[in-house]
Amino acid sequence: MKTVTEFPRKVVEFPDMGIVMPDGCRLSARIWMPEDAADNPVPAILEHLPYRKRDGTIFRDQLTHPYFAGHGYASIRVDMRGNGDSEGLMDDEYSEQELQDACDVIAWAAAQPWCNGNVGMMGISWGGFNCLQVAAKQPPALKAVISLCSTVDRYADDIHYKGGCLLLENFGWASTMLSYSSRPPDPLIAGGNRWRDLWLSRLENQPFLLPLWLSHQHRDAYWKRGSICEDFSAVHAAVLSIGGWHDGYRNTISHLVTNIDAPVKGIVGPWIHKYPHYAGPNPAIGFLQEALRWWDRWLKGAATGVEADPDYRAYVMDSVRPARWHPERPGRWIAEQEWPSPNIKLEAIELIPGGSKPVIVASPQSCGLAGGEYFPFTFGPELPGDQRPDDALSMCFDQAELEEAIDIVGAPQLEIRVASDRRQANIAVRLCDVHPDGASELISYGVLNLTHRASHEFPEALVPGEFVSARVVLDQCAYRVPAGHRLRIAVSNAYWPMIWPSPEPVTLKLSEAMLKLPLRPLAKVDEISFPEPEGATPWATETIRPTNSERHIDRDEKTGTVTLSITDDFGEVRDLDHGLVHGSIVSEMWAIHPDDPLSATGSTHWTQTFSRDEWSVRTETFADMRCDAQNFILSARIEAYEDENLVFERDFEQTIPRALV
């Protein structure tokens, strides 16, 4: 990445500007803007997050926000209420209070003498979600949005449920937020003992969100609120949607470009859950330059030509050897002027002809361990590995060796006729690239709770032994399978630890199966290009403990239990500007017996540390999830320490009935 130190306009920074909400709650904002903005007003760009501007997102903030400010914007990074250095309490993700606060910040910014009245909103993940949700509320000053790694459907395409199946990331993310929200404000910002009062109030009122999320196992009103797919026409702001093929939110770009009436464009690269000017795998792109083209057009009225950009720009990844991490993905950029594209045709591949003898699918509960993380973000061993261990536990349909290469671009689908011997059953479908030596690389996957085959809102129990029709839609992808390789369609009824298992072992019978494969004519060269990445001066830190990620699978030969253990040490650093030292580490454990779905367990342990001079704080959070045939059994704990003295502890225990359809 090229570091830019000289900008068209000199930048000034305000590390803690208070923005008071109508109810009196003070939000803390870090703002960068041109020094002369009061005399020459500029548009504003808002990023509204719970992730702490002081230390949580500071790495990317330093690269991004001063860059925008130097090109004539007031770039505003706000800690949401109840987080970081802001007052108040947070009770859930994407609450009405959160979205109203963002609307109020937008109105506040538009009214400032240094602002020209036009505001944009951007963000990745949580910030990508809420900028779309805020856009649907149509605050008058909001003219444009850049949303990265986000979703249009909080139920069907977030970390909670997928295809009606319960994602284990539901538990994982609830555990993460329990830890994130346990962190204190910085005493240098909050002042005196006020930081402690804010911190203890948060701890006393902090929810463990998993029971709430598990209380809504169908697509009810809870999930519909904030899902902009309920009414795409509500979004009037111009939307640039960006995502990565190695991220969990790879479908949103297509959904937005297909459905929004406002100006909208989409870009998908080979990246994990990161901003694309520093993301991996390479190639990264000049995201900030691309963002400026968007902002300049919709917030300044400049003729940047973004309207003429292709609707959908995507990176077609070449086949590579399976690995848990790829520093780079070779491939090429393609451009579709309109999306859905008339250049992409569905090819039907019959896997099981009608009238054939049914095929049996009865996978061990441990099938899925090669699947990787739902949304990788550590630049570590989190990508899907060689699929052969999972292929061996699945029913596989191998196709003939390809005589010519093919480009798969879009969402593959599997249409099936299936019968289950239980009232509830899950099915997982993986599309794999099989190398000549047998190595199996994951291209895309999809899962479906078969009771949700017709509706996520009104599921229908299966009648044991009765065949029903279902469609499993796999995730969007862009992948070249070379000549000499084979396609493999692997079908299982377990996918651990991506989804929680059915309450009973299940046997499925497939009587018909048809794969619909979206194929595009081969791209011979890059059809578009992006500038090389740029950024402002990086965050200045001293490394005290380096980062490290580890992942181990253990099989107990005596008990038969299979355990996946993950440790992500995010290291410890000292900020060379304000001196805050921050470190964090998480360990996860996912265990299951191949023959017993009720043996499934998950646990997490997070540690967060903060210090400066003689002051130090540490929080520990623990969470566990298990089940019986009727219930999810949950527990969690927070411990908070100041100068190694325990100052707060709290336990959560709850049992939530599991929906059996």
Automatic annotation (TrEMBL):
<dbReference type="InterPro" id="IPR005674">
    <property type="entry name" value="CocE/Ser_esterase"/>
</dbReference>
<dbReference type="GO" id="GO:0008239">
    <property type="term" value="F:dipeptidyl-peptidase activity"/>
</dbReference>
<dbReference type="Pfam" id="PF02129">
    <property type="entry name" value="Peptidase_S15"/>
</dbReference>
<dbReference type="Pfam" id="PF08530">
    <property type="entry name" value="PepX_C"/>
</dbReference>
<dbReference type="InterPro" id="IPR029058">
    <property type="entry name" value="AB_hydrolase_fold"/>
</dbReference>
<dbReference type="InterPro" id="IPR000383">
    <property type="entry name" value="Xaa-Pro-like_dom"/>
</dbReference>
<dbReference type="InterPro" id="IPR050585">
    <property type="entry name" value="Xaa-Pro_dipeptidyl-ppase/CocE"/>
</dbReference>
<keyword id="KW-0378">Hydrolase</keyword>
<protein>
    <submittedName>
        <fullName>Peptidase S15</fullName>
    </submittedName>
</protein>
<dbReference type="InterPro" id="IPR013736">
    <property type="entry name" value="Xaa-Pro_dipept_C"/>
</dbReference>
<dbReference type="InterPro" id="IPR008979">
    <property type="entry name" value="Galactose-bd-like_sf"/>
</dbReference>
<feature type="domain" description="Xaa-Pro dipeptidyl-peptidase C-terminal">
    <location>
        <begin position="292"/>
        <end position="539"/>
    </location>
</feature>
